[in-house]
Amino acid sequence: xxxxxxxxxxxxxxxxxxxGTLIGRLPNATAAIAVLLFARSEGGSYALAGGLSAVxxxxxxxxxxxxxxxxxxxxxxxxxxxxxxxxxxxAVLFVVVGLDPLPVAYAAMLxxxxxxxxxxxxxxxxxxxxxxxxxxxxxAYALDAVAQEVMFAVGPLLVTLVVAVWSEGAALLxxxxxxxxxxxxxxMSPPSRRWRSAPRExxxxxxLRSPGLLVLLxxxxxxxxxxxxxxxxxxxxxxQHGGGMVxxxxxxxxxxxxxxxxxxxxxxxxxxxxxxxxxxxxxxxALGYLPLVLVPGVVAMTVLAGVAGVFLAPALxxxxxxxxxxxxRGTVTEAFSWLVxxxxxxxxxxxxxxxxxxxxxxxxxxxxVPGIAGAAGLVVLLAARxxxxxxxxxxxxxxxAGPVAESLPGTPSGAAAEAVSDAVQPGPCSPAAENDRNRxxxxxxxxxxxx
Length: 451
Description:
Blueprint lengths: L1 H9 L3 H11 L1 H16 L4 H29 L2 H21 L4 H13 L4 H13 L2 H32 L2 H20 L2 H5 L16 H30 L5 H21 L7 H16 L8 H12 L2 H15 L5 H30 L1 H21 L1 H4 L24 H10 L29
Helix pairs in contact: 2-7, 2-9, 3-4, 3-8, 3-9, 4-5, 4-6, 4-16, 5-6, 5-9, 7-8, 7-16, 8-9, 8-12, 8-15, 11-12, 11-15, 11-16, 11-17, 12-14, 12-15, 13-14, 13-15, 13-17, 16-17
């Protein structure tokens, strides 16, 4: 297992890209706690701090797919580095101005969130050209999902450490300087500078014109909702069981379970279509959430939280592969950015829904929300699985795959023949290619009508 990941990270540029992306995403991963601490230090209420964080999050949710579309059109260096600098300047303005005047503080959060570079989607667009083989790409997606769990655990600790030795304002400045440095490391790498998206069909919907992608986004909205509800339920559970670090135990166990599951999932190749595998993983994820409604003692609840997290990173890693297969030609970064946005919005909705559930029903009903959300995510996949059965990218055209196309059930036989004929085109590991590998004309569009 370790040898496989070691081989992946020893591939030229892989470790640099992964590390740079994680560091570059620190401002986004720590925004909620960093903004809260700074606003409170300036004399703001929790409501005001929450409002500023909400503005940051909403701007981030809108900005990610828009910037992702710009990356697909103009390349990574020309979009990501300027965006990172502008986002950091928004954070600097917030620190300099504080909460007075308040409209400027909100505007600063709007800029900081809206211009957060889509490094996450950009990294997943680079993996095929860097790693080359399909088994390595799938392992990289799993490692990416695991690294997120580590980042969201380490990031807040870094913020609190800087606050302890310096100040709340310094913490905001430090993480944003690190964010720019991480983005710079990524965009100055040869793979990022060479990467070019495939020519895209002109369409205002961009990546969202893919039915399969819409199904995936609908499902993972509910997965994000479940995680947001678990965070609220954990705090409420802690209030009834001694407070203190109890909520941290549950959330840490959830993250640890995801880490273990992700490492195990990426350590081996998987046969069959990722769309079918995603159904199984989301079903297992939904089942893992259901026992939380029992709310037993702290030790048992911590164990249940760990079990609930086991299938999270594998489901995310598999979702990355499915996004890759369903993104329309020339929209791969935008498509991955939409997944990030959907997940974030779902998380926020889960927080909003679980609050009243706990308030009026107690901890048990609060933890029923993630179970219901997980089931809803599975229902979306099952109800619309015919759309998932038709990936836009030709089967067998993935990195490292042979020229023979393998159709999913329900895929027209002509698609397989088209994929075979496309095998003479440049492979996904050539400098001019991208990882969505969709070289066929989009339904309803002429091949020559490109943006």
